[in-house]
Design brief:
It contains one helix and ten strands. The protein is mainly beta. The strands form three sheets. A five-stranded antiparallel beta sheet has the order 1-8-7-2-3. A two-stranded antiparallel sheet has the order 4-5. A two-stranded antiparallel sheet has the order 6-9.
Amino acid sequence: MASAHYNQGLEDYTKKLIDLGTGTGGDVIKVRLLRTSAYTFSAAHTVVGDLPSAIVTDVTLAGKVLSAGTFDANDAVFVAVPAGAAIDALAIWDDTHASDRLLAYIDGFSVTPNGGDITVVWQGTTPWIYKI
């Protein structure tokens, strides 16, 4: 599976229902660690309830930046991730509205947690986290 956007999230961008901005009124955007052994991506999934339970507390993205249709933020640090099977995907979602809209799915990596922190280092060049 390649990284992708969720269909409803893309539609909500076009309707201006999602605000990735950094100022007051900007939406709360979160990221969740996933195991592909426990989740199969579907572009038709719409809300965070379509994801498996969080492995560890979801991280709120800080330092959000929008530039030329790309989205970036500070690296995400997941604290004390319990040892277990490899983590090999992420889901990004909007936690501002009651619907908790899924936005993007990112894969193409693998890390085996050992009880320590896991830092997700976003790509240092465009498209950063992702391009809309």
